[in-house]
Amino acid sequence: MIERPLDLELVQAFVRVAELASFTRAAETLGTTQAAVSLRLRRLEERLGRPLLERSPRHVRLTADGAAFLERARRLLAADREARVWQAAGPARLRLGISDHTTGDTLPALLRRVAAASPEVVFEVRMGFSRTLLDAYDAGELDAVLVRREGDRRDGEEVRRDAYGWFALPGALPPKGAPLPLALLAHPCGVRATAIRALDGAGIGWREAFVGGSVSSVSAAVTAGLAVAPLAAHLAPPGSADAGPRLGLPGLPPARVVLIGRAGEPAASGALRALAAFLRAG
C-alpha cells in the first residue's frame, strides 16, 4: 500500500494554533476562518490517528502527542519552503516601523514569533516616535508601522489598547511638595507630551530628571530610583508600581496601538497578518 503524504496546509494550521493557542488568531494569520482551521485540525488528527490538541471554551493546549509532533511539523514546513525557494527571484522584504512605546523590551519576543510564522520575509525594522514613523510611512519609506494612534488619524487596524500609569520604585518617591522628577523620552514623543499636558493641567510641578533615547533607558532610570516615568503598564520595569494614586497624579489615557500597512507581496502581507494576530493575542 502506498502511504499518502501529509497535507501541508493541515500541518501549517496545527503549527499556527499551537504557537498562538487560539483558533481565531491562527485563522487571522492564515487569512481564513476559524471553522476552516478547526476542520484542518480534525483532518490532521484523523490522518495521524491521535489527538494533538485539548480544546476547551477558554484554552487550547497541546496533548503529549501534539507536543511531540510540533517540532516535526515545523521541520516539514521548513523543508517545503526550502524546496520552493528556487522559484523566487529574491526574498520578500517588509520595511516595518515600530514605536518604542508599543514594544519596549518585548520587541525580541515579538520579532521571534513573527519571523517564525514568516521565515521567508526579510524584516527591515526602524524604531522611532509614532509621529516620525507615520511621516516616513506617508512618504513611502516604510511598508507598515506599528504605532500609537496620533491625533485625528483613523487609518489602520487597532490591535491593542495599552493602559498607562506613573511608574516608580515604591521606595524612591519624591517628598511631598517637591517637583515631580520625570524620566521621559525626548521631543517629539507623544507620551511625553501627554504626560506634561496632564501635569500642567492639574497644576502639579515637575522637572526633567532623565531624558532617554528608548523606553528601555527610561525603564532603567526608574529601576535606578532616579525618577517617575509615564509608561505602558506592560512595559513597566520589575519592582516598580504605579505611583499615580499615591502621589495624587492625574490619570493618563490609554493608548490605541494601531498597525497601518499597504498591500504588498503575499509573503509580506502574511507577515503583517501574523504580527496583528500576535499583538492581539498579547
From TrEMBL:
Coiled coil: none annotated. The keyword Membrane does not apply. Belongs to the LysR transcriptional regulatory family. Keywords: DNA-binding, Transcription, Transcription regulation. This is LysR family transcriptional regulator. It comes from the Bacteria. Residues 6-63 form the HTH lysR-type domain. The keyword Transcription applies.
